[in-house]
Amino acid sequence: MFLLDKELEELYSVVKEMMPVFEDESNADITYKRNRIRSQMIPILHDENMNFYRFYWNMHSWDTSTLQSLSERQIRISENINLNHSSVSKDKKTYFYIPGTSFQDLDSHSTKQILDFYLSLLGKPPLYRKPFEDFQRQSLSGRGQIDTADFLIDRDTQGNTLIINKDSQLLQQPLVLKKYNLIEVIWNGASRSFQDEKNIYSIRNQNPGEFLQLPYGKKELTEIFRENRIPVFLRNLIPIVYKKNLPIQILFSMFDSSLSDFPKNVNLSQ
Length: 270
Fold this sequence. Notes:
Elements: H1 5-15, H2 33-47, H3 52-59, H4 64-80, E1 95-98, H5 108-121, H6 129-140, E2 144-147, E3 151-155, E4 161-165, E5 175-179, E6 182-187, E7 190-195, E8 201-204, E9 211-214, E10 217-220, H7 221-227, E11 240-243, E12 246-250
Antiparallel strand pairs: 1-4, 2-3, 3-4, 5-6, 6-7, 8-11, 9-10, 11-12
């Protein structure tokens, strides 16, 4: 319940090196309702860009038993899985995005438990009391932030929180390579490439005040970033495709694979 599928897969890859993992054969049997939902309904909702993680937390809240389970699992992970072990891929998780709904109606103690849990998955120690209290006070009046030498916690006005390692590729400038008629951008452990036979495309970050031309009119890039809940400090890092120096598509999927590039289905052919 607490981790995205992609995050679970990363943990499974570590578990498989310690013990055998078996697939329950009933998982493929569509006579069970759960499997019909998984194999038939979810793909349709996924095509409609449903974000299941956020949807779940719109319908659930953290209660005492849930937090106790979370705390116990945090201890098990800390004891049994060393995320800094050499067997873990160098592309291990370096940040977590936590929707604001996860923190609804929680007291300070429970909020700190959640933050400490995700920090532990990044191999970081729990928060000190004073920085956490300052963070809580900041959040009451808008955005909150804890900035240390090792990690950054950033919360927007809706409570959406990003916890990130300072050495994460997410905080590095995109690398853009151009060779012959091919342009490639590498950022945040992902890469995208496309043909540019007429030399009319480029990839860079936004400039202040730029607009994106849409079928119904122009829209400021800053507004698009805000609507997609992109943290302020990342808005000048996310790659944007330009055609003849005009922005045509923001590559949101390179930040979060659950997000669609905006606008969708842009034709980059000549």
